[in-house]
Design goal:
Blueprint (H helix, E strand, L loop, with lengths): L1 E8 L2 E10 L4 H13 L4 E5 L3 E4 L1 H16 L3 E5 L3 H10 L2 H4 L12
Parallel strand pairs: 2-3, 2-4, 3-5
Antiparallel strand pairs: 1-2
Amino acid sequence: MNFGTEHPDPRTAVIRPEGRLTMTSTAALRNLVTETVESGRTHVVVDLEATEFIDSSGLGALVSGLKTCRQAGGDLRIARPGEQVRTVLELTNLDRVLRPAATVRGAFGS
């Protein structure tokens, strides 16, 4: 799995996982979110457009990232989940917690 990152402003980061977000890739996502928050970017958008599959480990990494961001006074949102990802989020009711947005820009209402 590859992760693209973008920093649209000093407090926001966009992380773009590409491929399958499973047990083998979740440690890298957790570390990336932690490093991002430690650098002062406490508002994180995880753009899931290129994430073709997510399992329970991937969901756990997103929830862990949410906790990391909130403890630093920020938030983590997700954007553009594909059909499989959206289905898993809805089945677990995590769509209510992670608040998926249709666009990266819309993830924080800006």
